[in-house]
């Protein structure tokens, strides 16, 4: 669940890649006369601190401390340019911004070409990569794809912040006469369960179980209003929706006052809560996995036939492919959306039909490959073979034309989902056969 950005700068020095951590506690930067000569980063992972350093210690050293885990770095900016003394392009300055709105001093000389590395959804910095030697030649960053929504409700009570986990298994809610008095959340992280509770146990307790990891909560709704008995604005009701299309009962008073809905972009799952609590739940906000928008990968093949575009579903359960003598004549796809199956088909049913079934939602297709070429019998370019791979490491047979060695025939292509993305839909051209094919990759029900 991360986004890799950059690097920006020059192409000299040795490549470095720190990888991905939970967060950054401190950065030390070495400023030479006309460049950034050195960087040392103190990361945290699983409660332990790990330090990486790059470049050469030279010039003035300055530190930037972060109040991690409550505060995190959300952007890395600076400048780079050709440095005559080294006869190469180097990073000339660095500057950091945090989730608390703080901005570091500018480390180095801010002249040159400016850059800014930041997640589109406010994700936190979790690692660096780049190039270094006598100085810092280039720099890039990894950002966590986590989105923090604002807390809805009142401003009384004590602030709480559970942080980010892998997912949520169960939520227990306490309903008082006119508000939500209590909430207990059972999280999972690295295979272990951790419980957090807020507010005061009072009134009726009710549970909402989630079939995690196959099912996850994707939205948190409810209402808040002034409660005379407490002389404060409190959360009055809560309800939850899941990736399986289920909606919990409404916990608390019937929605009254100001209604709200907390949810991540593109159906991202709930990773944690934050807010305010005391005698009751004053305010509530959430962390969601900020799912990148589905990626449309352009089609390969010919330009004849009729355009088709299935759009985006949550996942694929089964693909049926028709193999003609020298091409793929037909494809039928069984998709799933909102816990319902929907089937779409393209081309013409002709030749041998073969199926490739997927154990969705436990398994998903992460790779679509194949071949295309000119087919004399149709006097046009067609898809000649298809091949699928899944998140479980399974590979389908070659569906379509092969040579005597069982290898696909024609010009090869491959579409692959990155960072856990899976197949969500097909598009292309079809008529008497499959002329061209493209795909959508994203994150659906997994």
From TrEMBL:
SUPFAM superfamilies on file: Mannose-binding lectins (SSF51101)
Organism: Camelina sativa (False flax)
Top-rank taxon, per record: Eukaryota
Secretion signal span: none
Annotated protein name in UniProt: Myrosinase-binding protein 2
Keyword Oxidoreductase: no
Gene encoding the protein: LOC104770937
UniProt domain Jacalin-type lectin: residue ranges: 2-145, 146-290, 294-443
InterPro entries, sorted: Jacalin-like_lectin_dom (IPR001229), Jacalin-like_lectin_dom_plant (IPR033734), Jacalin-like_lectin_dom_sf (IPR036404)
Taxonomic placement: Eukaryota, Viridiplantae, Streptophyta, Embryophyta, Tracheophyta
